[in-house]
Amino acid sequence: MNILLVTVSLLLLAHVSDGKKKGSKKKGSALFSSENLTCLVCKSLVDEIEHMISKVDPKKKTETGTFRLNSDGTQNKNIIPYARSQGHLMEVVDEVCKNFEDYAQAKSKISGKPMIIRIVTHEGNMNPLMGEVDMVPDDDLNTRLKFYCENIVEDAEDDIMELFAKEAQDMDIQLCSTRRNLCEDSGSPTEDYEFEKEEL
Question: Which of 8, 50, 77, 161 pairs with 112 at a CA distance of 20 to 30 A?
Answer without folding.
Answer: 50
